[in-house]
Design goal:
The structure is a homodimer.
Chain A lengths: L2 H10 L3 E2 L1 E5 L6 E5 L3 E5 L2 E8 L5 H5 L3 E6 L5 H6 L14 E3 L5 E3 L5 E12 L2 E12 L14 E4 L2 E4 L8
Antiparallel strand pairs in A: 1-11, 2-3, 2-6, 4-5, 5-10, 6-9, 7-8, 9-10, 11-12
């Protein structure tokens, strides 16, 4: 295998939590599924993600000043699939999304999301790493979160997983 | 809860694949467990991670020109714990590590690792985001990888998990 193919093989086996990013820089709602979202700093609260230059919706998302990051659980696996599918209108289901009072599109069935403003970007090999500072956090209501039945979603080797008691190590 | 506490609560519930980073900038081997490792670009192959300014070993790691990133499976959970523990000599077990011919310390029992050179860094809220370009990829031999029994390790809400058939969504 080539160097790039070996790299891809290594990362196919590296799991990631699943998020959907949404934004609107003035041309309508855009969104995509990302497995690169990670906390960077708690105080001030900041997170990072990367956007591939090959992504069809990447350029529109990178123009936005604010982004909503939804951290998904197993009950949002269909949203994760929708926002990872090319060539469809990801916002076709009008009941699936709405606008925050600040204007950004968001997914109404996602119990956890964070709204932030872009504070830094860095180019890396045709992709762009984005840092956002969090302005607003929405947490699950009781009965929705992991402690109350919502298992977090993980993507690994082209398969969706949910963490729970059966995946925990002793 | 405060804004920062809400942010922490959201990310406690966001799972991450588990990696151990090792390096030596001339003062001896250093290493730490990271859940922020993510692929950024496949061609050229690049990955990113973030290092907290609060990490005791962060500054030494950030001085290194090259880093080894081990992507861990369930059989490396003790390594993950060791490299996440403060106040110990993480390299005390001489049998657990060796030097690559290029000089970097690496963990001999980790079947997947990538060696790369630092190509960019970006400050973000007291942490540092690092991008490395991959120079060398080590993949599992047959019988070691996910398809042959090694289940990838995931960290979530202070618990270690392993992905497998029981966590896959149908």
């Amino acid at each position: 295998m080539s160097h790039t193919e070996n790299f891809k093989a290594a990362f196919r086996n590296h799991p990631g939590g699943v998020a959907v990013l949404t934004a609107d820089s003035g041309d309508g709602p855009v969104g995509l599924t990302a497995t690169s979202v990670s906390s960077v700093s708690a105080d001030p609260p900041m997170l990072m993600f990367s956007i591939s230059g090959l992504s069809s919706t990447g350029p529109a998302l990178l123009k936005a000043e604010t982004v909503v990051v939804h951290l998904l659980g197993e009950q949002q696996v269909e949203l994760a699939k929708t926002f990872a599918t090319s060539g469809i209108d990801r916002f076709a289901d009008q009941a699936s999304w709405a606008r925050l009072t600040t204007g950004e599109p968001y997914l109404v069935s996602a119990p956890t999301w964070l709204r932030g403003k872009v504070v830094n970007q860095m180019e890396a090999g045709g992709s762009t790493i984005v840092v956002i500072e969090i302005l607003e956090v929405r947490l699950p209501e009781e009965g929705q979160d992991a402690q109350h039945g919502q298992r977090p979603l993980v993507y690994h080797n082209r398969t969706w997983h949910a963490l729970g008691d059966s995946s925990a190590l002793g």
